[in-house]
Amino acid sequence: MSVENTRTDVLVPNPRTVRKSRKGTIRSRESYDESQVKCGKQKYVSRAETHTATKAKTEQPAEPQIEDEPILIPEVGTVVPDSFWMNPLCKKAVVFKVCHIIQIGEAIGQGSFGTVFKISIGRETAALKCVQKSTATQDQQRELSKVKCEFSVWRAVSEHPNVVSLIGFLQTDRNWCFVMEFAPLGSLSHYLKDTGGPLEIDQSRRLAAQLAHAIHCVHEMGFLHRDVSCSNILLVKSTTHPKMLDAKLTDFGLSIKGQTSSSRCGSLAYMSPEVLERSPYATDADWWSYGIVVYCMFVGRTPLSVYAKKKHIELSSLSREMRYELAKNVTIHITRQLNAEQRAFLIDILRDNPVERLGVWRFSHSDGRVSDTLEPFRRHKFLAGFDWANLDAVGTKLKQQQRQGRSGPLDSKEDLQLPSLEERLQSAACSPKLKFPHDRSLSD
């Protein structure tokens, strides 16, 4: 895969490349992880109106290193959670202390790893990501490990202003559920398709800087995202600039602890050359994916989509392996209609050699540690004028919280609280409940 300048100019998004959903978190059709077991499509059956759970109350042990005790929820059919964790660092989580009904609304996104619903808690609106459990015990253990990792990464960076906030976590008999911030404008991929083309240069500059800082924060906390794409970037209205949008990085389902991997995963159109070749990779792969996202902001669609259109190739008609081979041979065309700063920014990020990519320039610490640095982004002409101060302060705060044990990876001393059936039944009287609309159902 190579990058070259050309006068080719394609500004219309390809409806086959980006799956359209109503609003919310959406995954592209090519997004998956070969090392993980896929979850099947979730269905619903009508909820039982009554339950036999006892109303006796019992005190539950506090979760280590978490300020608030988890609210435990009784089992009623298949829709009432049996455990609930509130993010003590999220202000909106306090609503769960006084509201005992979680109203499930419409599905706003669906992908290979689950379904996202719009939910109401009192007067607050949020989103609920449901990841279906496997029926096999052995697979459930693998899924639990994966869910713990997603929980750890998300919790560690949740307070970053350009990351979707994690409000809480719960589980039902059939699903792992993440309660998260609701983004009414939906994903970047959805927005590009609806608007019919690229973003204004000032808007793309703002989003590019915000995302660079969010991704850098994920890396600084000791994780790889591994699925940076337009579908996993949600948009919200800016509170400081009314006419601008802000970016929110989301979906840590493929994230891992550590700085290296060799598993081929993510969204095909955003995979770096080393990921496509199954070679070992590090943070450089996330920066390549970031570069493709920026390309989409400038052009309106992915380089793979542009290449396929130019060659008159119908991507949906190709097998998975054929799409891989096609992606390996894509030449990234950078139109001359972009200004010099935009072209230079893309060329600096989308380099075939991972160590030469913008964002992968290393910083050597006095104790021998080596880490990425945002300095190349701060100095780049395209991002000139962006105020990094507030984001830098947040990054410092998150690192301090991680050192104090208030966020970060789960370990043997800190686990998701999974109470026994007896404990769940004893907590029936005071626990919140999931309430589905009458026409929604949950079945095998």
UniProtKB/TrEMBL annotation:
Its name, as the record gives it, is: Protein kinase domain-containing protein
An example of a GO molecular function for this protein is: protein serine/threonine kinase activity
Origin organism is Varroa destructor
Q: Does the keyword Acetylation apply?
A: no
Keyword vocabulary terms for this entry: ATP-binding, Kinase, Nucleotide-binding, Serine/threonine-protein kinase, Transferase
Renumbered residue ranges of the record's region Disordered: 1-34, 399-418
Binding residues for ATP: K129
Query: Which residues are in the Protein kinase domain?
Result: 102-383
Q: Is Nucleotide-binding one of the keywords?
A: yes
